[in-house]
Write a structure and sequence with these properties.
mainly alpha, Growth Hormone, Chain: A
Length: 522
Amino acid sequence: MSKKPDQYSDEQEGGNDGRQIMLNPVPSSDPNEPLNWSTARKICNFTLVLAVTALIFTALSIQAIFWQLMVVDLNVTYTQLNRAMSVNFVGLAVGCVFFIPLAKKFGRRPVYLVSTALMLATSFWTSRLQSLAELYATNLLQGLAGATNESIVQITISDLFFVHHRGGMNGLYMTMVMIGSFLTPMAAGTQATNQGWRASYQALGITNAVLFVLFLFFYEETKYTPIIPGVDESPEATIDSIKADHKRDIECSTSRAETSPIPADHHELDYRIPMRTWRQRFALITYTPESIWPYFYRPFYVVASFPAVLFCALQYAFGVVWLTILSSTLSLVFPLPPYLFTSEQIGFMSVGPFIGNLIGSVYGGFLGDWSILFFSKRNKGYYEPEMRLYILHLPALAMAGGLIMFGATIARGMHWIYPSIGGALFGFGLGSISDAALTLVIDSYRDITGDAFTGVAFMRNAISIGIPFAISPWLSRSGAQNMFIACGFISLAITLTIVPMVIWGKRMRRATAERYRVMAGK
């Protein structure tokens, strides 16, 4: 699927140095299209998305830090707390299948608002819960609320940014995921040690309330419904124009177009097109009349039908599996001798993975964006999505090695700095590979991004549901060293699927081009 519309450098006569940026996807001249928004407008929208990402992953991660305190306060066992984590994954798996079709049908804005409001309510409820049943219920609802974030952010990135920016934006997204997974739990652990674990959930609820207000007044709808010139904005005209627009985009992306793509410095907007009013930009619902039911089953078909999506699902799912095992092991092992860590100290063990992921997000995101420009130039100006995978051999080795180092050092009771270094290596691999895999799907199948990432999120959470049940027995039977050695080699086997994607990815995209054309045109 090598094509002129995807190229980034166009070596032409007349002294062009081969570094001219070509816009992909090809934008319209409508200033209302999110791709054509000003940088400040995009930053405002995407900053709110990043903030809610950090907040949601904070809510999904901090409970494991509190286990040592909750066992005493709620009179529950570690096994029951592991089950509560599994219930959370059930909510995450079900929620993405339920909410993302609504985002496609009614717009991104209402889904973000509902998700933030539900997370707000469950945060305050968790701060007051007294029973095991309430613990399970709040974990289920938090999973449902957080599920939207795992898919809708990638849809938003596709709405707002061109291909040569998406790696960096996904890098920022993965950084927010890791801030929520590792950095804010450190603050929560400190607060829990000094004020109690309930105070952390109260602070989370207050932050959610502030973010809900910001979303209500500052987050613009990024669902774009192009209007046929000279035709009134009616549902029928809108849906017809969407289908026509999809057909045009797909034909451009699956064949060598005769027309040139638009250079970044030559793209012009038609300001005769009236700007949308404040009410339209901040509408609670942006409705389009297509059938909603296919969106509920299409994600599963997309994962099974497109190798790049399945590849992304495997990388992302197993990355989260290792993250779950690592986080749970911290909570199970470090309160015991020889470490005898408090909740605050367990929280600070997240520094290593966070730093590693921060470096990994830069490596897989911004360096990934640079690498596709470099490899496109070497490929006579033609860009292939698989070029993002060329730099992932180092992260694959780092992830496996980090897991093994983490398990081997805690099994020997070595100084905490050594498992922290192992966690940092793991975080570097997770950030790099997840970023590249997510961006690969957006670049390859932009018009079915929602379906693709709903399927990816479902697979990631479905695989993770059973993991909390297995951690304690596995750790008791095999020991930390053998458990993490097994995790390391399984991780290496999964990440080495990068090799066949690099070799045969282009061929597989060509083989599925007609299938993609049909699905995106529906």
